[in-house]
Design goal:
Layout: E1 8-12, H1 16-28, E2 32-36, H2 39-45, E3 53-57, H3 65-73, E4 79-84, H4 89-97, E5 102-105, H5 110-123, E6 138-141, E7 144-147, E8 152-154, E9 160-162, H6 165-176, E10 181-182, H7 184-188, H8 199-211, E11 221-224, E12 228-231, E13 236-237
Parallel strand pairs: 1-2, 1-3, 3-4, 4-5
Antiparallel strand pairs: 6-7, 6-13, 7-8, 8-9, 10-12, 11-12
């Protein structure tokens, strides 16, 4: 029986000492790593081999980390952990809104890094998007169409885009239980996220901006104060 290939993680960090430290930490936990010091180098290499997760520094010398993430998300689906020395909360929020799964600020402890890496990788296991009925893979609602297996979202006017894993998983949870109030805990789907983590609220906001003309007065994804969120639409599967 062939041995399972170790999980590949790309580290994009222009400071070689920090990058090497991150790689050494990951390799101690049996992860396979590749280090890139520029965003351009990383993006070029994606055509050769894509990782299961990338750890992305925002302050790169050639491209801003946000731009790297946007380019990557157009064609690839894998975990993204932002590592940043920026203290501005808006940077971290923007990173999550653009498709990152989590972030950690410098300096950080090795055990915190590994915990966040493991949490993200669990979200990207093949089982995450297994449906009870494999033949049902497309959801249609309010003029929109969502393909479960490709994460492709098509708007009523025909515009197509591919969602990131975390955002697609949240949408799928809403689609599977329309017109029901779902708490933040239910939407977390058992992930090990602290009660203070606002990632679900950020992703709800991001979905609203896709679907709603006025996200402040949402008609499709409604807030039920003190209880959670409700997806107000008829969903047809086929």
């Amino acid at each position: 029986m062939s041995q399972r290939q170790p999980v590949l993680i790309h580290v994009i960090e222009d400071d070689s000492s920090i990058g090497r430290q991150i790689c050494d930490t990951l390799e101690k936990f049996a992860y396979r790593t590749e280090l890139f010091q520029t965003g351009s180098e990383f993006l070029r290499h994606l055509g050769v081999e894509a990782p299961s997760l990338c750890i992305l520094d925002l302050g790169l010398p050639d491209l801003d980390g946000m731009e790297v993430m946007q380019r990557m998300r157009r064609t690839h689906r894998f975990g993204v952990l932002i590592v940043t020395g920026r203290t501005d909360t808006s940077d971290r929020v923007l990173g999550l809104e653009l498709g990152a799964d989590d972030y950690v600020t410098k300096p950080f402890e090795a055990r915190e890094l590994i915990a966040r890496v493991r949490s993200i990788l669990r979200r990207y296991t093949p089982q995450a998007f297994e449906h009870d009925r494999p033949e049902i893979s497309v959801a249609r609602f309010a003029g929109w169409q969502f393909e479960v297996r490709t994460y492709r979202l098509t708007s009523p006017d025909g515009h197509e885009e591919t969602l990131g894993q975390a955002e697609a998983q949240l949408l799928l949870t809403l689609l599977e239980r329309p017109n029901q109030i779902l708490s933040r805990e239910q939407l977390l789907s058992g992930r090990d996220v602290s009660a203070l983590d606002r990632s679900i609220d950020l992703r709800i906001s991001r979905l609203r901006r896709r679907f709603e003309e006025n996200p402040q007065h949402a008609k499709l994804i409604k807030t039920v104060y003190g209880a959670g969120y409700l997806f107000s639409a008829v969903v047809n599967w086929g």
